[in-house]
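Re: Re: ligand-bound prediction request (bumping)

Still looking for help on this. To restate: I need the protein modeled with pyridoxal-5'-phosphate bound, output as structure tokens. Inputs repeated here so nobody has to scroll up.
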Amino acid sequence: MTTYVWDYLPEYEKERADLLDAVQQVFSSGQLVLGESVRGFEAEFAGYHGLRHATGVDNGTNALKLALQALGVGPGDEVVTVSNTAAPTVLAIDGTGATPVFVDVREEDFLMDVSQVEAALTPRTKALLPVHLYGQCVDMAPLAELARRHGLKVLEDCAQSHGARHHGRLAGTLGDAAAFSFYPTKVLGAYGDGGAVVTDDEAVDQALRRLRYYGMEKTYYVVQTPGHNSRLDEVQAEILRRKLTRLDEYTAGRRAVAARYQEALGDLPDLRLPTVNDGNEHVYYVYVVRHPRRDEIIERLKPYGISLNISYPWPVHTMTGFEHLGYRAGSLPVTERLAGEIFSLPMYPSLPVETQDKVVSALREVLATL
Ligand SMILES: *Cc1c(COP(=O)(O)O)cnc(C)c1O
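Reply:
Sorry for the wait, this slipped through. Here it is.
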């Protein structure tokens, strides 16, 4: 059996009765769209964050796009973000008609280099979109200060950081709004697609609710401004309610896996393990390591039945579909260098210890014979 970086089946085995009960509850509720489960999940997800509003949507990409639109971002605007991220971060900006502007990431943690943001601002800049990549938060204080000084909105991309903390505060509570994905691999994952936006701003939340529902005020069935059909599915919402009560348990499981890697691999000179910044509580959505001979390592692990992947092999600014943005090879040197050296080790809360041991010993063997 091949070992992959992620597998939901061990979790499903363990939680099957509860998950199937969730499906059964929705199917017999008499309301399949925007019913009790979506309303309940929204209240509980907002409550988890200590915020007043959460709006469920169909996926993380649309959570980002609708949140940007609700914050007033549109054609002609610029949004500053990073290229070392999942392409959807950038697709969401593009989808509003605004232009993505990239700053580089930091060598030590692969996160947005906040010190480069001010130089990237223009009169068109409308919002900053930090990505709490891999499960730990961007340095938010200087970003918030910049936003305040220049009148910019801050949208957090929390698709990889459910439950992460930054100086004691939860990811998702550090800007004007935050977008989450519940894609199955995520720290809080559905059994299909899902997403949400959290905010404390009533007007932003009202705009989001219209945008996900064709642009209509639900009671009047009149389009106010053309929107989308981006509703969170009722079944996924009920599954997410159940899983939200276990989020802190999942995170504890991920941290235990990370601690075992640190213990078992921390002595290897050329393998760089993840570091946690001061003030951050990491949730390890993925466990990203770095080695100059990454491609050979991945190749040599295959005969052991270990199939690893890379988050992300192609920086977004180098993708064919974003050529029109005008970035050239060399524009974002740290991002480009990292893309050739990083790879992910298996990481999920229910990762069996024997599987992790197998990965550790195979990796040690491969590294010893490089
Ligand atoms: C997963 C992810 C998204 C997109 O979420 P989907 O639910 O797949 O649309 C956006 N940004 C980041 C950083 C992600 O990891």
